[in-house]
Amino acid sequence: MASKIHFNKIKDEKDKTYIIRCPFKNCNSRIIQVSPELSKKLPRYNINNLENVLISILDNDEHGTEESDDSRISIGARSDGSAASNLKKLIKLNDMWDFDNIGVSRPNSNLINESFIIKDVDYIDSDNLKDDIGKSIEVIRYLVCADCDRGPIGIAANIIDSISEEQDGQGKDLDKVNANPNTLVYFLSVDSVLYELKD
């Protein structure tokens, strides 16, 4: 089996196919295969305040590892092991069926009142995505590994222009928890998973 490596070692490999896998030991579930063509179409969003929500894989292994070490997985730390920044880089997918294998949690009311803002979009295939910068993210569910049910490795959310006063307070929770799953977009955290380069 090929070594599983960190995003820091894959981010510049634009002409190779790679498989994104579950980071947890004894799992190795395939989440999605990314070809060079697909990679160009997957925008990477920088979103704030998710550092204490999603797991990070500490990049302390220069050459990757044959088997994930769960001691490298934490919440509230940057992928290089230093204190967490307030930005997370996430790959955006528009449809749950774009994944080969992903689990989605029940609606999470604990996240409803948190404020998550899109700060930047990288590798833009369409200039229209720049309009998302500054918009709010309504996080509704966590993404987890479908096989081992561990994570969270991403979020299912709505992108909105702003939160109106009517949505604040008690009514906001019910509205968002009962959101239509067909309107959600999916964000996979790039440093919450491991990568396997294909020959």
Automatic annotation (TrEMBL):
<dbReference type="GO" id="GO:0016020">
    <property type="term" value="C:membrane"/>
</dbReference>
<dbReference type="GO" id="GO:0005829">
    <property type="term" value="C:cytosol"/>
</dbReference>
<dbReference type="GO" id="GO:0015031">
    <property type="term" value="P:protein transport"/>
</dbReference>
<keyword id="KW-0813">Transport</keyword>
<dbReference type="GO" id="GO:0006892">
    <property type="term" value="P:post-Golgi vesicle-mediated transport"/>
</dbReference>
<dbReference type="Pfam" id="PF04421">
    <property type="entry name" value="Mss4"/>
</dbReference>
<protein>
    <submittedName>
        <fullName>Unnamed protein product</fullName>
    </submittedName>
</protein>
<keyword id="KW-0344">Guanine-nucleotide releasing factor</keyword>
<dbReference type="InterPro" id="IPR011323">
    <property type="entry name" value="Mss4/transl-control_tumour"/>
</dbReference>
<keyword id="KW-0653">Protein transport</keyword>
<dbReference type="GO" id="GO:0007264">
    <property type="term" value="P:small GTPase-mediated signal transduction"/>
</dbReference>
<dbReference type="GO" id="GO:0008270">
    <property type="term" value="F:zinc ion binding"/>
</dbReference>
<dbReference type="GO" id="GO:0005085">
    <property type="term" value="F:guanyl-nucleotide exchange factor activity"/>
</dbReference>
<dbReference type="InterPro" id="IPR007515">
    <property type="entry name" value="Mss4"/>
</dbReference>
<dbReference type="InterPro" id="IPR011057">
    <property type="entry name" value="Mss4-like_sf"/>
</dbReference>
